[in-house]
Amino acid sequence: MILDRIVEDKRIRLKEHKQRISPEEMKKMALESTRKSISFYDALAKEGLSIIGEFKKASPSMGIINNKLELTDRIDQYNASVDAISVLTEEDHFNGGISYLKKVRELSGLPIIRKDFVIDEYQIYEAKVAGADAVLLIAAILNDDEMKRFYDLAYSLGLDVLLEVHDEEEMARALKLDAKIIGVNNRNLKDFSISLDTTRRLSEMLPEGKLFISESGVAADEDIEFLKGCRVNGLLIGRAFMESENPMEVAKRWKKIFEE
Ligand SMILES: O=P(O)(O)OC[C@@H](O)[C@@H](O)c1c[nH]c2ccccc12
User: Fold this and answer.
1) Around 130, how many Cα atoms within 13 Å sit in the side-chain half-sphere?
2) Has 115 been annotated as catalytic?
3) Active site residue 56
């Protein structure tokens, strides 16, 4: 399965990163960082539809995403229309990198989430040092013990966690952990197919008081109409914004449709 492959490659990259900056040094830098996080939670909790705009240059399901807009232009548009920014930092399958996160940090006052395959504490310290306000944790690649350890570490550094699930079993694990922000990935990780109905199904398990984000495959006005009925607080949008000449206009239109 592709996910196993991505995690294997991640382990190799992690070794390289640790050779450049040792785990002790990275931890020290994170703990000494005086930068105050911008609340990812608050940005998503406000009334109406919240949107997380993603900076992503490629993905295993779509290959290279062909866009002419520079990072700067895209982030300018995000600054004017979305509530938070997601930056892919995975190198081998999404053409990302931690350097993009640092660049986006310089260009934006919005909360930023590090989007990667987190399998080690090191990556959470690294996110903090690079200027992130939140990290993604993917239930499908973590056991309960790791999930809790990474979750607690992130919060102890002042970072929020978006806990990603994609089926009932993972949702039950996220609820057991009492995660504050839960994201449903509409993409089936085995065959890449998209079904927004995953968001609807899993929303039925949600207790009051959680922030609920629908991730992946949201691309058309009809999708927004459908998700209106699914108790979502926010959406995570990658491809549709990366391919668009004017993501700002799309984000504004979708917020309007959701609120009508
Ligand atoms: O480009 P899309 O279909 O709008 O999807 C965005 C985001 O949900 C997707 O990039 C994503 C969701 N979970 C992930 C985990 C790792 C890498 C990427 C992702």
Assistant:
1) 26
2) yes
3) yes
Asked if ipTM goes beyond 0.95, one says: yes
Q: Report whether 51 contacts 237 (CB < 8 A).
A: yes
CATH code for the domain of 222? 3.20.20.70
pTM of the model: 0.97
In whole angstroms, how large is the CA radius of gyration of the chain? 17
Give how many domains the chain has, as a whole number.
1
Burial-class residue 180 by CB neighbours within 10 Å (0-12, 13-18, 19+): middle
For ligand 1, is residue 116 a contact (CB within 6 Å)? no
Residues 6+ apart with CB under 8 A from 60: 2, 6, 93, 94, 192
Domain of residue 216: give its range: 2-32+41-259
22, two tokens: 């040792």
Q: Give the number of other Cβ atoms within 10 Å of residue 10's Cβ.
A: 21
Ligand 1 touching residue 215 (CB < 6 A): yes
Tell me, in angstroms, the distance from the centre of ligand 1 to residue 135's CA.
13
Q: Which of 10, 27, 50, 54 is catalytic?
A: 54
Per DSSP, the three-state class of 94 is coil
Q: Which atom of ligand 1 is nearest to the CA of 240?
A: 4
Please compute the mean of the pLDDT values over residues 214-238 and round it to a whole number. 97
